[in-house]
Amino acid sequence: MYHHFVEQAKKLEPRYLTMVIPSRWMAGGLGLTEFRQTMLSDTRIRILVDYPNAAEVFPTVGINGGACYFLWDTAYDGTCSISTVRTGEVFGPTSRSLGEFDVLVRDNRSLDILRRILGHGEPSVNTILARDKEFGWTSNFDGFHTTEQPGDVPLYYIRSMKRRQGFIARSAVTKSEHLIDTWKLLVPKVGSGRERERSGIDLVLGPSLIAPAPSVCTQSFLFFSVSSCEEAESLQSYYKTRFFRFLVSLRKITQDATHSTYRWVPMQKWDRIWTDAELYEKYAITKEEQAFIESMIRPMGEDNG
Fold this sequence. Notes:
Distance between the termini: 36 Å
Number of domains: 2
Number of helices: 8
Shape: globular
């Protein structure tokens, strides 16, 4: 409810307003969409200082997504001076518009990379990504059986933090039936949470799983739909790259990896095994930018991809 305090304080119309608040509003947070839009369009925010690891300022309090403080000046109308503080090092300030995108790109060093990638004008990979509860079943759905019966299709779910497979009658699938017979790359809806706060580097997303056709899943997973095993393997290799997960991280501020989280990841051709080296070359990522990406994103190996 911290956003209500910010809104009420602005209504008092002080000359200056400064507040320390959680950073979740920048790219996520339940019920914060309208507040985020208001903040990003407010040209009276003169200074914004962001701590992605809130433990740097509140060592005994866990604040998922970090913390920030801002200076709001009722007589000011312009760009915002943005700084990011990581492990005691200050990056910035950089003067830029808060409202360039629908979420705030927190680290100024990410901006040139993102702009260059978006400049290719490629469609987003989330155009082949299913929506939440695509087949209509919540994560605690239990209307399936553990042994296969005639007419069944495999159903993938997570229970007690373990990935499991059950079976359900094809006739029981009453939503998105056209997706049953696609190959799928299942990705957990909940990714890594506060790993970066502990170590400064993050996997961002949880391990993926290839589900052959036919198959369905519960809300525990989102999934990408493709037409063959080879395409699924190609997509999985892309998912594992630091490039892919770096772009996701720009929109993922909490542990939830939603459909919109993948919006800035460009589509590729699913005809090869993708590597960071190929993607760095395609998008002209400099050595310095590569080092920055790799300082933020952990490699994803066979055991966690």
